[in-house]
Each structure stands twice: as structure tokens, then as C-alpha cells.
């Protein structure tokens, strides 16, 4: 027997040695391949990225517009691009887009701007408005803007409307379908599973948990959602009508009026777009290429017009040796983007500890004289929100002004972390408010009973044994509800104190109700309407700064992390663009939506189980 065991250990050890050697060999070969390819690309004249003279900048945006990209492993990202794998959730950094457009405005090599937006996904109206403003500013250079597309989604069209020449493919289509908030509701499903849902909340309009206790949207939620959706849609229509120079009544909001126009053009979406002044003309791809070639000339391959794409242009203008003024006065920008969770979280999610650490870093940095907290969040953990808010107070106590700039969302916990700022700027379309608290969990004693499984035992107190497999004692439920009510009282007291408002007045506009920035200004929840640049200027003015730089306050990378980030970041440009994200099918999309609804709550990790989150805020 001992001999057999020894043989087995020897065999297993040999197999492991082979596998381990193969693993090391595989990754070493990949590293050598990357290194050789990078060296060849650097020394090769053909591999160099440069801006052709009198060319067009093609703004081919692929993904969601965000103020902070979700953290990804640099090697995984490089391999994805190198082997042209589809990116699951591509993102485009808003400040990169604004920087590229502004640079192209003054770049003598750039003769025109081409908007190729078919890869652009949701952006948030505030982000689209900023890009639209940048496009209008670009026009001051008297360089033309072309928008081309086989089709246009609503967000894509918002930007395309700012073009001097807006063309659609003759086989293309577009429908401006407005804003809506439709959700899945699970009450009947949970009943069939015999799950018991325990809900604790304060706020008539705090409807985040409605899908778990109803099969439809409540009247209160419909009333609240309809109000802010209508206000948001009015802004969209006004902006697009102004950009296209048309009457706001041109928008078809009723199916009957749309059908009448659609029938007149024989059911042709493209012709409908022309007849209603949505586009300037219909052009197929070759006609677009010919028109742009006549404007900027042919490229070296003679296969198209001279151009440089968005990603390549960023590589050129974001040079590796930009001057850094370490001793200059700075306005520090701390980004708080995503759901607020407890602990340390990666970029793209707000961590109570990690975001507080960034604020603390800004406070202890002697070159940072003022701070802007850039918020884009529907909220999350009440505890984590308070951890972050306390650091906001510490910055103010240190004598540094702190100004909040609200992006697409700053609701519930997003408003909690903003309320204590010296000054709050919101975009006209910012979704904010949703001042309320809730808690929710499920128990499965009935489900298990149906299966013939039962939980029983003893404990030293009546608190012992709380578990999803046992029924909730009503008295424990009362304890939780009172704690939620206490949290809500904390929330409205915080707002009342920081905004110098009467507590009853705050309660009247709270109750979980959602507002857009324009209305929030009227209600006193924000101070001014504007964007990040406005908030930075306000912070600098409060700090008495006339000459200053801005600095994004980020986590310090280790030397190893810094090396690999830079290595793979430079290497990836030589391997072309990643394939565009494509649909996985309607059925899979529905499955993903269903999983996502539950996943939002599954990620919550507040130690007290109390959440300030605005699920209905997400369009």
C-alpha cells in the first residue's frame, strides 16, 4: 500500500511539474511575442501613429460615456484588443472626448470632424450636453462637422444634431422614443417559490423595492417618475430642436401622428427622416466616402479619405512627456462613480473606504487648495455614504473648499455624500434627490417546509438563530423598521442642517422622490446649474486661486502596477481596434436583465442592511 501511495505521489508530482512548466512557457511566449511586436512597431515607420495633414478626425465612439472607467486588468485588456475579442461593456471617458474635440478645434492638421456614432451607447443627457457644447465650440474654427450613420439611436442623434451635415444611409432608420422607466416585477414569482419578503422603508416614493412586493408600479411611483421623465424629455427636445433649427412640435410623441407621416412615405424610415428634417440627406457609404475624400483628399492606401480615428488621436495628443507642475496650486478632482458599497472597491464602483481614502489624500496634499467631488451615483450603502461624508467634513475643517459637481445621477446615497459640500453644482438634467432609506431581505421557511426541510434548535437569547431559513420574529422586524426610520431621520436632518432648510420642508420634498437638476435648484437642493468646469472654477474662486492646475486624485499605483499599465497601454495601440459590441439575442438580453435586477441587491453589503439607493433613477 505504501508503495502504491508513493507511486501515486510521484505520478501526481510529475503531472504537476509538466503543467507548471507548460503554464510558464505559455505566458513567457506571450510576453516575448508582445515585446517583439512592440519593438517592431516602434522602429517601423509604418507603425507610427501620426495626424495626416488636412485630414478628418473621426469621432468613432464605442461604448457608454462615463466620468470614470471601470477598473480592468491591463493584461486582459491588451489580450482582448490584440486578439480582437468583443468587449463586454465598452466605455468612453467623457473628458477624453471633450479634450479631443477641443484639441482638434485648434489643430491645423485637422480639417473636419466626422461623427461616426454607431458604437455609442447610453451616455446620460448631462454628458451628451457637454459633448454637444464642445461640438458647437468646434464650429467656431469654421471647420465642418459631418455626422454619418446607417441608423441613429436617441443618444446618438442628440450629438448628430449638432453637425453641419447630417447624413443617413438610404436603408437606415431612427425613432426618437423618449424616456421611460419600465421594470420587471417578481411578487407572483416569489409567492410561487413560497419566499417571504421582508421590507423596511421610509418614504412614500421610495420605490426601489417595489418589484419584490408588487406585480406593477404603484400610483405614487408612477406619479413621481412621470414628473422627472417629462422634465428630462423637455430638455432633450429643446436642445435638439435648437441644434437642428426646427420647431419643438416636430417631435412625434403619439403613435397616430407618427403613423400618418410614416404612411405618407410608404413605410420608409429614411425618407421619413428626410421629410421631417431629422437629417440633411441620404447617402450610402460610398457616397459619404466620396464627399469626404473631395474635402480632405485620399489616404495613403487610396481606399478612403484622409483621417485619424478617435483612439489614435488620443495617443498622439496625450503625449508621454506632458509637463507636470508638481509645485503648482491645484484643484483636486475626486471621482465618485457607480453604486456605493462598503469597504474598498475598484474604479467604476464607489467604496466607502476607498473613496474616503481619495478624499483624505486630497486633504493631506499641500498642493491641493480646493476639492471638487465629481458624483455620478444612484446611491447604495447608507453606512458607506456616511463614511465618505465624514471625509467631506474633514476637508472643510482643514480649510479647503469642497464643491460637488453632479453628473447624470446624484440620488439617495449620491445626494448623501454631496449634501455637506460648500457648494453644489448640478447639470440641468441631473437626477437627484431620492432622499429615503430602505432595507429588505427574504426568508425561505415556507419554501423549505414545502420541500420537507425544517430548521429548529435552541439559543441563549431571542436574537439567536436569525437566519433566512427561519421565520422572522415580528419584534425583530420592528427593531429593523425603527432603525430604518432612524436612518431616514438622520438623512433629512443632514440635508436640513447642510442646506439651511427647515426639517419639515426637507421631509416634504424627500420621501424618496426624484428630481432633475433644474427642479432641484428651485427646491434648494442644489446651488447652481452647470458642469465640472463650472464647479472647478467655483472651487478655485473659493480658495482664492487665480493661477492653478487641475489634478484627478487617484489611488497610487505600485511601481509594478505602473509599469504594466504603461507597457500594455502603449502596446495596445499597435493591435488595432477591438470588435464592436454586438447583441447576444433578445432572449439572452431578457435573461441578463432579470439577473441584473437581482444582482443589484446581491452586491449590497451595508453592515446594518440599510440602503439609500435610487433604482428607478436608472433609465
TrEMBL record:
Record domain Peptidase S49: where: 138-295, 396-545
UniProt entry tagged with the keyword Methyltransferase: no
Keyword Hydrolase attached: yes
Protein name: Signal peptide peptidase SppA
Gene: sppA
Family: Belongs to the peptidase S49 family.
Organism: Bowmanella yangjiangensis
Sorted UniProt keywords: Hydrolase, Membrane, Protease, Serine protease, Transmembrane, Transmembrane helix
Chief site of localization: membrane
Transmembrane regions: 25-43
Subcellular localization(s) per the UniProt record: Membrane
Family matches, as CDD domains: S49_SppA_67K_type, S49_Sppa_N_C
InterPro entries per record: ClpP/crotonase-like_dom_sf, Pept_S49_pIV, Pept_S49_SppA, Peptidase_S49, S49_SppA_67K_type_N, S49_SppA_C
